[in-house]
């Protein structure tokens, strides 16, 4: 598994490669020719296109203008502006415990009107009961060896859920793998209460809950869990880092992935039947 810093470097290289392709497609066969037209040094073009430096806004405008495709600037800008913030290492984020992390996420939740959330192995935070949230956070605390504030962090997450999820003016699309219903966090009572809560929430008018059965014919492979906040950003939680994507093209891609996953899911009474099966399996 690559480190977050290595991933940032790879993202910088990917952006550089994209700019190199734009240059060549525009008829500038060499970096020297492009540099002469842009009024830059050849070394600057080389550093940008080999991912040694992140290009600035004016640099990106020049690539967009000389490529003859000014509209591409928005994607280029989003990619460059957020490369440095794409990965936030969990070990650094969690140094002060999990409660501050939960608090920091509140403004994003409050301003989002449309949530699209996919989780392959856990119940999403917005749908978690306090006991289930505390069980999961306790495991994170044990794994990373960080200050134990699982109860406080679970309380913050629960209040966030109550304030946001009950708002009938928002829309929530959830797609879970059936495995998320079967993965046991906490004791049997904790899991039974969590699954019962999932059943209750599934009938709320602002909530769409889909579950992909274990035996579903796959048209889209399982992915890491991701959250789409309006058309603003995608947040992906990896094992060692959190990744944020803000490029319009990336958001569009994840929206397509979410739609494909949703097509494999069952909803309504069929989804609740799978939840019931998971509850019965606890007994």
From TrEMBL:
Superkingdom in the source lineage: Bacteria
A Pfam family annotated for this UniProt entry: DUF5753
UniProt cross-references to PROSITE patterns, sorted A to Z: HTH_CROC1 (PS50943)
Domain HTH cro/C1-type: 19-66
Source organism per UniProt: Streptomyces bambusae
Origin organism lineage: Bacteria, Bacillati, Actinomycetota, Actinomycetes, Kitasatosporales
Protein name, entry field: Helix-turn-helix domain-containing protein
Membrane-crossing segments per the record: none
């Amino acid at each position: 598994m690559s480190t977050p810093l290595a991933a940032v470097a790879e993202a910088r290289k990917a952006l550089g490669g994209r700019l190199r392709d734009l240059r060549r497609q525009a008829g500038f066969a060499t970096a020297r020719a492009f540099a002469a037209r842009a009024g830059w040094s050849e070394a600057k073009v080389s550093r940008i296109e080999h991912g040694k430096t992140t290009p600035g806004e004016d640099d990106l405008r020049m690539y967009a203008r000389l490529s003859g495709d000014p509209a591409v600037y928005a994607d280029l800008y989003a990619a460059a502006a957020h490369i440095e913030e794409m990965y936030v290492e969990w070990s650094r984020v969690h140094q002060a415990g999990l409660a501050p992390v939960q608090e920091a996420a509140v403004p994003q939740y409050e301003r989002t009107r449309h949530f699209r959330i996919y989780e392959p192995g856990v119940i999403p935070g917005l749908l978690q009961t306090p006991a289930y949230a505390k069980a999961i956070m306790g495991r994170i605390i044990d794994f990373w060896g960080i200050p134990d504030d699982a109860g406080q962090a679970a309380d913050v997450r629960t209040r966030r859920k109550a304030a946001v999820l009950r708002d009938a003016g928002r829309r929530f699309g959830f797609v879970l793998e059936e495995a998320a219903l079967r993965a046991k966090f906490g004791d049997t009572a904790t899991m039974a209460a969590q699954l019962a809560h999932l059943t209750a929430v599934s009938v709320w008018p602002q909530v769409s809950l889909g579950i992909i059965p274990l035996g579903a014919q796959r048209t889209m492979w399982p992915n890491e869990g991701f959250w789409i906040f309006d058309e603003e950003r995608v947040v992906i939680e990896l094992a060692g880092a959190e990744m944020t994507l803000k490029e319009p093209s990336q958001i569009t891609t994840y929206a397509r992935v979410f739609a494909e996953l949703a097509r494999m899911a069952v909803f309504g009474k069929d989804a609740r039947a799978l939840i019931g099966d998971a509850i019965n399996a606890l007994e």
